[in-house]
Amino acid sequence: MSGFPKDYVSFMMRVLKLMQHEFAEIMRIDMDFKLVSEEEQVVIPDAAQYDSGSEVEEVTVGHVQEVLEHAFPNGLTLQVMADAL
Questions:
Q1: Mean pLDDT, range 5-16, rounded to an integer
Q2: CA 7 to CA 72: how far, in whole Å?
Q3: Nearest to residue 76, comparing CAs of 47, 43, 46, 41?
Q4: Would you call 12 helix, strand, or coil by DSSP?
Q5: How far is it, in rounded angstroms, from Cα 19 to Cα 33?
Q6: Alpha helix segments (H runs only) across the chain
Q7: Where's the Winged helix-turn-helix domain (predicted)?
Q8: Element (H, E) at 78
Q9: What is the pLDDT of residue 71?
Q10: CA 83 – CA 85 distance, rounded (Å)
């Protein structure tokens, strides 16, 4: 993990903690990471704007995916993703 920027490591640690404590029914998460050049990087918005406060929400797998994507948006352009596929 020493080759990844700190944001990637904290993201992976957060996902692992969520799986262990809050979403025990999730058995597996697949993550693929690719480091991109500076010109391909996208600015990551402030995650605090997505904070739901203390309200209680019904959580589904889709909801978890959406929250993770908003908190840690994919920094790859569509073209880079298409080329990788």
A1: 76
A2: 9
A3: 41
A4: helix
A5: 19
A6: 6-17, 61-71, 78-84
A7: 50-85
A8: helix 78-84
A9: 72
A10: 5
pTM to 2 decimal places: 0.32
Q: Which pLDDT value is given to residue 10?
A: 81
Q: Find all residues with CB under 8 Å of 39, minimum gap 6, and list them.
A: none
Give the Å distances, CA to CA, from 33 to 2, 68, 80, 82: 14, 15, 12, 15
Residue 34's nearest CA partner among 79, 66, 4, 11 is 4
Q: What angle do CA 81, 18, 45 make, to 5 degrees?
A: 50
Q: Both tokens of residue 35? A: 């480091």
CA–CA gap between residue 53 and residue 67 (Å, rounded): 13
Distance, in Å, from the CA atom of 42 to the CA atom of 75, rounded to the nearest integer, reads 5
